């Protein structure tokens, strides 16, 4: 039976309650299901589009990496720019600018903003890598360039000093440039005082040695000895230089003395050797005798050659003209009495109509 409200329910308004459940119409349920399905489809399509956008961005990024590798170590890559070429040119601006330009072209070729966003998030990586690589390469090649320039300065100024060995001012100028180069290289590489001193000593000794060699090659042994006395303290291997000077001095003194003796004795080998045997120093005496023998032998060989040429010419003249008087005086003076006697015979036979013969046995 119905329950009446008690004191606890005072003020409440009775609500009617149905005992039958509510059911939505069938078409309303179908629409909800369709909407839910469409949402999932749209989400799936968006996920697929997102994957495609990422794929396009990855492809563009791969192309960017390939470009970076080519700009780095390709045929015209910056790693192939070395020495002065790398040190004196703005590689970062040149190669970094080219990569930046290519990055922009790749971004422009993408289809939408989401692809570009994905691409740009990673595009900064190769840019930074290339920047770091270029800076490292440039610093390395600047060091190479500095070393090349240092070595070049030493070699060029040493050669210049040797070529200008008769000019003290030129030698001083070359030495000064070399000293400056050594000081610069010492600061750059942080050489110790001892190492710097050793380097300078080696370079200067080499320069002075080159000048001595040039003087001796030009038979200026006296000048070489004077030069050595002046710069003796700057030579490292003094014993070697002194031995070289001794040998050269002995040789050149012997040559000059031999010339003098041969001239005094008018090429008489016996008289020349007698004079040379009076030389006190053994090495000088031996070298002088050797030079005398060689010089007289060369003179005799040259005289014999001149006589042969003169006789051949004179023989042909007499045979063609029938007279020894047609021989030019410059050839006559080269002919011995024996040769002139033979040519007189040729003249007679030619005028008698006899074909003369050149008897080598008689001439020799």
Question: What can you tell me about this protein's structure?
Answer:
The protein starts with 25 loop residues before the first helix and ends with a helix. The radius of gyration is 53 Å and the shape is elongated. Mean pLDDT is 85; it is low at 360-364. The longest helix is centred in the middle third of the chain and has 51 residues, at 113-163. It is an all-alpha fold and 364 residues long. The protein has helices spanning 26-73, 83-87, 91-109, 113-163, 168-189, 193-217, 221-231, 238-264, 269-276, 282-321, 329-332, 337-351, 360-363.
Give the structure's gist in a few sentences.
This protein is 77% helix and 0% strand. By secondary structure, it is mainly alpha-helical.
**Stretches with pLDDT under 50, minimum 5 residues:** 360-364
Global outline: elongated
Give the helix level as a range of percent.
over 70%
Helix-strand makeup class: mainly alpha
Order of helices and strands: HHHHHHHHHHHHH
Question: Number of helical runs?
Answer: 13
Mean pLDDT: 85
Tell me the strand percentage band.
under 5%
Biggest sheet record: none
Compute the gyration radius: what is it? Answer: 53 Å
End-to-end Cα distance, whole Å, is 178 Å
Total strand segments: 0
